[in-house]
Structures are given as C-alpha cells and as structure tokens.
Amino acid sequence: MSALKIEKGSSSHSVYALRDPFAEREEKHTLAVLVENEPGVLARVIGLFAGRGYNIESLTVAEIDHKGHRSRITIVTSGTPEVIEQIKAQLGRIVVVHEVHDLTVEGAAVERELALFKVSGTGDKRIEALRLAEIFRANVVDSTLESFMFELTGPSDKIDAFAELMRPLGLTELARTGIAALARGTA
C-alpha cells in the first residue's frame, strides 16, 4: 500500500490521487444519420442531444435525395464509448431516422470543412496574410483596399491552424460550415 505524502501548506490531495485510471476517456465521433427530409426532423434530432445533455461540436444537414425525400445529418459529438453507443441507439429509435453510421469506428473516412475568413489589414500584414493564404491553398473570394475574404477547405485542424495565424494579421470574422464526412471505399 502506498502512502500519500502531504506537505505543510499543500492541498489535501495529490493531483495523481484524484485521477481514476479506470475512468473511460471521452472520444470524438462523427455520426452520419440518414433521415426523412420533412419539417421538424432536425429539431427532433437536436432535441435528443439537448434533452440528455450531449454536446454537438459540429452539425451539417443537406438533402441528398430529392425524389426519395432524404437528408443526411453529419454530427460530430464526444463522450465515453458508452455515451456514444447510447446516442446511436437513441437516434436509431427516432421514427424518421433510416440509418445511423458511426464513421469513426466503421473504418476510414474523409472529413472536410469549408470556412470563410475576413481579414482586415494594410501594408506588411496584408502581404503576410496573402503569403499564408498561398501556403494553405486558400482562395481569395473577395477583396477591397482594406480587407480580403479567404475560402479554405480541408480538415478541421487545417482550418484551426489558418485561423490562429490570421488572428494577429487582422482576422475580423470567421464562418465555418461544420464537418462533411463520407466513409472511404465502395461501401
């Protein structure tokens, strides 16, 4: 049995003693949900998350089959493996949900995000913003004498990195679409 040494003036617990080595860690998962394209479906899906205190980190929705009236909802959420399984099961019980796929565990997937960045600046900051945009392969989609608007597509970490570099150069506004994802391969 090991003893916890507490020095005078220190807190009553060691940081290491507070950690539970058997506690499950939260994981980020990307879920693809095929649903009926009808009013109120998105609200029901979102309500499931809100009602149970689950967080949505990213959400994208679009119709994918006009004739079949189907939409695809891509949700990025996080939780313990048990919580993720609960989310998938609860989504599957919603009547208008046809399929629920956990792209994180079903194999390799391609995830992309689109972002627009408005960067204001003149002189050296303007030149540096253009140079970095070229390195990141961002497109200039609007330009004035005082600002640029860049469009960038890629994984979320690329979007995050570009945003961090643009902040000191005059990033004034940022809009992100959220993640769109598909499983790789033929299935």
UniProtKB/TrEMBL annotation:
<dbReference type="GO" id="GO:0003984">
    <property type="term" value="F:acetolactate synthase activity"/>
</dbReference>
<dbReference type="GO" id="GO:0009097">
    <property type="term" value="P:isoleucine biosynthetic process"/>
</dbReference>
<protein>
    <recommendedName>
        <fullName>Acetolactate synthase small subunit</fullName>
        <ecNumber>2.2.1.6</ecNumber>
    </recommendedName>
</protein>
<dbReference type="InterPro" id="IPR027271">
    <property type="entry name" value="Acetolactate_synth/TF_NikR_C"/>
</dbReference>
<dbReference type="InterPro" id="IPR054480">
    <property type="entry name" value="AHAS_small-like_ACT"/>
</dbReference>
<comment type="pathway">
    <text>Amino-acid biosynthesis; L-isoleucine biosynthesis; L-isoleucine from 2-oxobutanoate: step 1/4.</text>
</comment>
<dbReference type="GO" id="GO:0009099">
    <property type="term" value="P:L-valine biosynthetic process"/>
</dbReference>
<dbReference type="InterPro" id="IPR002912">
    <property type="entry name" value="ACT_dom"/>
</dbReference>
<comment type="subunit">
    <text>Dimer of large and small chains.</text>
</comment>
<comment type="pathway">
    <text>Amino-acid biosynthesis; L-valine biosynthesis; L-valine from pyruvate: step 1/4.</text>
</comment>
<dbReference type="InterPro" id="IPR004789">
    <property type="entry name" value="Acetalactate_synth_ssu"/>
</dbReference>
<dbReference type="GO" id="GO:1990610">
    <property type="term" value="F:acetolactate synthase regulator activity"/>
</dbReference>
<feature type="domain" description="ACT">
    <location>
        <begin position="30"/>
        <end position="105"/>
    </location>
</feature>
<keyword id="KW-0100">Branched-chain amino acid biosynthesis</keyword>
<dbReference type="Pfam" id="PF22629">
    <property type="entry name" value="ACT_AHAS_ss"/>
</dbReference>
<dbReference type="InterPro" id="IPR039557">
    <property type="entry name" value="AHAS_ACT"/>
</dbReference>
<dbReference type="InterPro" id="IPR045865">
    <property type="entry name" value="ACT-like_dom_sf"/>
</dbReference>
<comment type="similarity">
    <text>Belongs to the acetolactate synthase small subunit family.</text>
</comment>
<dbReference type="InterPro" id="IPR019455">
    <property type="entry name" value="Acetolactate_synth_ssu_C"/>
</dbReference>
<dbReference type="Pfam" id="PF10369">
    <property type="entry name" value="ALS_ss_C"/>
</dbReference>
<keyword id="KW-0028">Amino-acid biosynthesis</keyword>
<dbReference type="GO" id="GO:0005829">
    <property type="term" value="C:cytosol"/>
</dbReference>
<comment type="function">
    <text>Catalyzes the conversion of 2 pyruvate molecules into acetolactate in the first common step of the biosynthetic pathway of the branched-amino acids such as leucine, isoleucine, and valine.</text>
</comment>
<keyword id="KW-0808">Transferase</keyword>
